[in-house]
Design goal:
Number of helices: 10
Radius of gyration: 20 Å
Shape: globular
Order of helices and strands: EHEEHEHHEEHEHEEEHEEHEEHEHE
Largest sheet: 11 strands, mixed
Bound molecules: threonylcarbamoyladenylate, magnesium ion
Strand content: 15-25%
Structural class: alpha/beta
Distance between the termini: 53 Å
């Protein structure tokens, strides 16, 4: 199949022509589009055939449910069995934005879209192109991240093109994603609101808005890695985001981290490996390796989040065998960043306190 690529300037909404993309999505085709978190691979959420195509294009197991993207809260009301009060509060506080809510579903969204579950994940994105696409098509769009299953999520259109050219009908290129990590997922379908995937909107922000305790799914906590605790979100159970090279995270006091990483890099080089190091800008003169990746300033955690996936992809495209990374436990989104980085590293961490 020929993939049609449409370029839209995010700052010039008057120039947007989405007619073709809208036509495709209404007819059960697939359109990848930008959101503020990562690019999504969209199909009509009410159309089982479209959902099947999504799973196929991504090479994704069909028991891993999709997120339904909406542009108005009334659409949540249309597809939820009941609307929890917490959903109304979080809608006021964070939508449109990088938050996904899980609620019990009625029969409007087919089980193909929800991977057979009786709950549905719903998100109202804030990206202006995504919002216009959702509003003008008036279709609820099921969209996982627009990567091949197992690769890092795409934060620019070229990443989508790399993975899905020829497998989808259309790609809307709207520049780079602002946040660069997938949305926070909060489960409102039973008891205490529970974070199933950390993201830009963290536990404290949710607790402040709701005025009550929010839990974190024990299955996603780093200290439980390797134990037999299953994450509740099916997608968090799969091996994810792993670059082809071996990635090791080194944690601890700054000077010690630098010398340990340099030592490991030299050893790897001696074994004939191509090496790469991921670090914050402050440390850029302290390392040597075949490829150096400055991820952003340590005090600018948004830039660290935004650049992570592009760097992991570059590790693959440059054929790096041994990758060493500093750890980025920043105050606000550090948990989300480290959740992704630790997965990419298969939880290989050297702690040198
Ligand atoms: O930021 C995002 O959320 C992006 C953009 C495109 O919106 N989408 C995204 O989708 O990251 P995806 O499919 O790559 O990740 C969705 C995650 C998976 O881990 C899936 O298992 C989980 O959400 N999920 C979806 N529906 C669920 C449900 N009903 N119960 C539990 N987990 C669910
Ligand atoms: Mg994904």
């Amino acid at each position: 199949m020929q993939t049609k690529r449409i370029k839209l300037d995010v700052n010039d909404s008057n120039g947007w022509d989405m007619t073709e993309a809208i036509e495709i999505i209404r007819n059960g085709g697939l359109v990848a589009f930008p959101t503020e978190t990562v690019y999504g691979l969209g199909g009509d959420a009410k159309n089982s055939e479209a959902s099947k195509k999504i799973y196929e294009a991504k090479g994704r197991p069909s028991d891993n449910p999709l997120i339904v993207h909406i542009h108005d809260f009334s659409e949540l009301e249309e597809i939820a069995m009941e609307v929890p009060e917490d959903a109304r509060v979080l809608n006021q506080a964070f939508w449109p934005g990088p938050l996904t809510m899980i609620v019990k579903k009625n029969e409007v969204i087919p089980l193909t879209t929800t991977g057979g579950l009786d709950t549905v994940a719903i998100r109202m994105p804030s990206h202006p192109i995504a919002r216009t696409f959702l509003t003008e098509s008036n279709v609820m769009i099921a969209a996982p991240s627009a990567n091949t299953s197992g690769r890092p999520s795409p934060t620019v259109a070229d990443h989508v093109w790399e993975d899905l050219n020829g497998k989808i009908d259309c790609l809307i290129d709207g520049g780079s994603s602002d946040i660069g990590l997938e949305s926070t997922i909060v489960d409102l379908s039973e008891g205490i609101p529970t974070i199933l995937r950390p993201g830009f909107i963290n536990k404290e922000m949710l607790e402040k808005a709701l005025g009550k305790e929010v839990r974190i799914d024990p299955g996603i906590l780093d200290q439980n890695a390797g134990k037999n605790i299953r994450p509740k979100a099916p997608g968090m159970r799969y091996k994810h985001y792993a670059p082809k090279g071996n990635l090791i995270i080194v944690e601890g006091q700054e000077d010690k981290v630098v010398s340990e990483i340099n030592k490991l890099e030299k050893e790897a080089k001696k074994e004939g490996k191509k090496t790469g190091i991921i670090f914050t800008n402050e440390d850029k003169d302290k390392y040597s390796a075949d490829v150096l990746f400055a991820i952003g300033n340590r005090d600018d955690e948004d830039s660290i989040a935004r650049n992570l996936y592009a760097i992991l992809r570059e590790c693959d495209s440059k054929g790096i065998d041994a990758i060493f990374s500093e750890s980025f436990n920043t105050p606000r989104i550090g948990q989300a960043i480290m959740n992704r980085l630790l997965k990419a590293a298969g939880h290989q961490v050297i702690d040198i306190e």
